[in-house]
Amino acid sequence: MTNHRLTTCPPRQKRPFFIRRGPMENIATVLISAGFLMLFQPFLLVLYTYSLAALLAGTVMFIIVSKFPE
Amino acid sequence: MTDAPSTIAERSAEVLVRSTPTVIARRVRGLSDRAIAWLFITPTIALLLAINIFPLIWAVYLSFTNFRANRPNAEITGVGLRNYQRVLNDPDIWIAMQTTAHFVFWTILLQTVIGFSLAYLIDRKFRGHAFWTTVILIPMMLSPAVVGNFWRFLYQPQIGLFNYIVSYFSGIPPSSFEMLGSVSLAPWAIIIVDTWMWTPYVMLICLAGLRSIPDYIYEAAEVDRASAWRQFWSITVPMALPFIMLAVLFRGIENFKMFDMVMLLTGGGPGSTTEVASITLKREAFESWLTGRSSAFAIILFVAVFGLANIYVKALNKVKQR
Question: Contact, B179 vs B162, CB < 8 A?
Answer without folding.
Answer: yes
